[in-house]
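fyi for ur records
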Amino acid sequence: MAFSSSAALWFLPFVLPLCLYVAYTDLALMKIINKAVVTLGAIYVILGPFVLPSIEAYLWGFAQFAIALGVGFVLNAIGAMGAGDAKFIAFAAPFIAPGDLPRVVLLFTCILLAALLTHRGARASRLRDLAPDWVSWSQGKRFPLGLALGPTLALYLCLSALNGA
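which gave:
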């Protein structure tokens, strides 16, 4: 992993609860709350200069944010993903080392598949009765992508903390 192990350890206590919150709110409401993504961005802005290995790494995170926001805007405009999903991806982008992008794509793919199968299985079973008011149960083909996005960032930071640079 190219991301700094010590930076991941510093970010994790603040980012992990947000990742879980994003997964929950997307399941329950089919929305990723703006306060969650803005808080994620604030964590990067405040802690980044102190915990990342260089000012260049910190500043590169803002470029990654802008690139991800632009791509997310286009994907949202063509209906490929929700606005909350696009915003979460943009605000999560600075936490990912550019060299780790192929690993993150693979990690996301695996988590997305597991989340989709789990969500669809739970929706079709009696497990649905545990949270009968969740909006995601009644959305047809729509899927709460935050259920995969939040855990992807959380697991990436955990793996970086264990195996990072």
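Helices lie at 5-29, 34-51, 55-77, 83-92, 101-123, 146-163. thats all i got for now
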